[in-house]
TrEMBL record:
It is an enzyme of class 2 (transferase). GO terms for cellular component: plasma membrane. Pfam families: HATPase_c, HisKA. Residues 260-456 form the Histidine kinase domain. This is histidine kinase. The chain crosses the membrane at residues 31-55, 179-200. The keyword Nucleotide-binding applies. It comes from Methylocystis hirsuta.
């Protein structure tokens, strides 16, 4: 018994969890749609409750009261007929029915009442109420038809010597103006929906502008932005502008500092070169010149990595032209290369940064492969550039390590090959600075495929 109890309690929880997951999957994901749902849903539920509880009850009470009044009128006409049986034309009966009760009465010969009249779902409440009230007022058999054309009700009462046939409008016994209430509720719902939609659209628009400004800034593009909207949205916009200002100031300070460091280091390297130029040619001097050249290349690479391209302005950049230049450079090195373009190759980005990104990827492929395939695909949302080579590739478990700064996959390689371990790190840093990324995979050529994905 003790072991079964947790399973019994767990069943409702699992059922509720499945229902919650089902509901979550079908709920709108956007803030505009969710806010609209929060505003509209309670109003609709409240109006529906009012319509069902209040109006349904009100409609039923009014219909029963009207039916009771008609039943009293029918009973009164029956009493009048029975009280004045000697009136040959029943003129008095017809006059009272027409002028006082707004009904039409006909005295028919004695006949069997018709069978049950066809019922309409629209007037089921009227059938029920009128039958009940007539049963309370009349002792004689009667027959009713509430679905006659022209909004009429026919009532027949079987007397001892005749059959009374009475016609009355349906409004005598039926609350037919209820549709006005529902119509006004529908109109009110539409008006509320229109007002809520307009209001929420104006509240959501500043949030979308802020999101667009943040996205463009993340891609290295500057867009005009001023905080608008509700107080909280303006606070978020002001915080974004403050963050953007601090970020730009930090980039400016870093650039200024690195320019100074770069100038000082280049000055020292230039002194080394001048000193070596004044020395006599020897094996030691040649080795020192190679070390100085290598030092200069490494310093330039380190500074390029640390400096980045944050101060460069974004502009339309032709990726195809850059790939054609890299293809020509690859062929000059005696390697095979091809370029394939799909879609518009123009991308709004920092031109020098994108050129450095692609040059680093192609340079890495040139270093290890003998054949390169360069391709760019524009699918309308993303610019994807593939750099394929037929080199040895990189093992799956070490591909992320290749992006680490100053990390060399092949520790046995000499630094004299010009590889500072920063090429892929710089390339990924530039790609992420534009809102994209770089991934490594196995190439169809058998080597490595480097894929740069940049949002348009």
């Amino acid at each position: 018994m003790t072991a079964v109890l947790p399973e019994v309690l767990a069943a409702p929880r699992n059922l509720w969890r499945r229902f919650a997951n089902w509901l979550h999957d079908r709920m709108p994901k956007g803030l505009y749609a969710r806010a609209l749902l929060i505003v509209i849903l309670p109003v609709v539920l409240l109006q529906s409750a009012v319509a069902y509880v209040f109006m349904e009850r009100h409609w039923e009470v009014v219909t029963y009261r009207l039916s009771a009044g008609m039943a009293r009128q029918v009973a009164a006409l029956v009493d009048i007929y029975q009280t004045f049986p000697d009136d040959p034309d029943h003129a008095q009966l017809r006059r009272i029915a027409a002028f006082d009760l707004n009904m039409e009465v006909a005295v028919l010969p004695k006949q069997v009442l018709p069978g049950p009249a066809p019922k309409s779902s629209l007037f089921s409440l009227l059938d029920k109420a009128l039958t009940k009230e007539l049963s309370r007022r009349l002792k004689e058999p009667f027959w009713i038809n509430t679905a006659l054309p022209g909004s009429l009700i026919e009532i027949r009462v079987a007397l001892n010597d005749a059959t009374l046939r009475m016609l009355a409008t349906r409004t005598h016994a039926y609350a037919s103006n209820s549709y006005i209430f529902f119509m006004w509720m529908a109109i009110a719902s539409v008006i509320i929906l229109a007002i809520a939609t307009s209001f929420l659209r104006n509240q959501i628009r500043p949030i979308l502008r802020l999101a667009r400004a943040a996205e463009e800034f993340g891609k290295g593009r500057n867009v005009a932005f001023s905080p608008r909207g509700a107080r909280e949205v303006r606070q978020a916009g002001a915080a974004f502008l403050d963050m953007k200002t601090r970020f730009e100031r930090a980039i400016e300070q870093r650039t200024t500092m690195l320019n100074g460091v770069s100038h000082d280091l280049r000055t020292i390297i230039t002194r080394f070169k001048l000193s070596l130029a004044l020395m006599r040619d020897s094996h030691e001097a040649a080795e020192m010149r190679k070390d100085v050249d290598e030092m200069e290349r490494m310093v330039e690479a380190y500074l390029a990595f640390a400096r980045g391209d944050g101060d460069e302005t974004s502009s339309p950049t032709d990726i195809a032209a850059i790939l054609d230049e890299l293809k020509a450079d690859t062929e000059k090195r005696g390697l095979a290369a091809s370029v394939k373009i799909e879609g518009d190759p123009t991308l709004v980005a920092r031109p020098a940064a994108i050129k450095r990104l692609l040059a680093n990827l192609v340079g890495n492929a040139q270093r290890y492969g003998a054949r390169l395939e360069l391709s760019v695909i524009n699918d309308g949302a993303m610019m994807t550039v593939h750099i394929d080579d037929d080199g040895p590739g990189i093992p799956l478990e070490r591909r992320e390590d290749a992006f680490r700064p100053f990390y060399r996959l092949d520790e046995s390689r000499s630094q004299n090959d010009g590889n500072s371990g920063l090429g892929l790190a710089v390339a990924r840093d530039i790609a992420r600075g534009h809102g994209g990324d770089i991934t490594l995979d196995r190439s169809p050529l058998g080597g490595l495929r480097a894929t740069a994905s940049l949002p348009l």
